[in-house]
Amino acid sequence: MRKNIVAGNWKMNNDLSQTEALITDLKRESKTSNAEVMIAPTYTNLWQAYQTLKDNTIEVIAQNMHFAENGAYTGEVSAAMLKSIGIKTVILGHSERRAYYNETDESLAKKVNAALVNDMRVIFCFGEELKDRKAEKQDAVVESQIKNALFHLEAKAFNKIVLAYEPVWAIGTGETATPEQAQDMHAFIRKTLSEKYGSEVADSVSILYGGSVKPANAKEIFSKPDVDGGLIGGASLNAEDFFAIVSAF
Ligand code: 13P
Fold first, then answer.
1. Can you tell me which atom of ligand 1 is nearest the CA of 125?
2. 33 pLDDT above the threshold of 90
3. Cα 87 to Cα 46: distance, rounded to the nearest angstrom
4. Closest by alpha carbon to 89, among 119, 109, 45?
């Protein structure tokens, strides 16, 4: 059965002391829940966060990585480097990476491969822009993002893949997809997976929703049958809000 997951994407927020303070708050707020809980601090604080949470159920994950194992890629970090400090899961394909750092389906396919070769779990993000939704092209956009970056994989690779539907127009805008919009898209994603890999694989993959999830709307969104959790930006920077969202499960 697929897992419920709530992951906090801290983006480029929190220096070392702020990271330590937020983790202290998270430990205090932490409650037992039916969801796996993850946080993604920035690179410079991953080691510290990992050490601090080693014996906790909160998993520390990375926001990005390069596809090469090592080499002349100034400023980049590889899967092997992440693994060497205990990180087992990486977010790939976030719309901010696609928009500001020219990440493409092709480069993301390589990153996915590198993560899997290193036995890492991937939270693979995708989602349409506002202009796509206005033109009712959201299904076609999402389908091509998934197919181009993931459909070269064998079925068994999907036990290491979590999908995160994040409509760009809902990220950091306060404008959330309605629970019905999220459910419609998640059902479409599962159907797309099922057509290629069969229903057993499609039913086993967790599909998270991301985009202005808050304590006030999490329960309704997570109650939808094909929504298996959330990727949380702004609200993950406050421990009380974050665990209020986790508790929606
Ligand atoms: P917000 O929750 O701030 O809208 O961000 C969502 C997101 O981008 C998570 O990856």
1. 10
2. no
3. 8
4. 119
210 lines ligand 1 (CB under 6 A): yes
Which residue do the tokens 């985009």 mark?
A: 211
* Cα 209 to ligand 1 centroid, rounded to whole Å: 9
pLDDT of residue 1: 80
CA of 34 relative to ligand 1 center, distance in Å: 21
71 alpha carbon – ligand 1 mean position (Å): 31
Q: Calculate mean pLDDT across residues 60-80.
A: 97
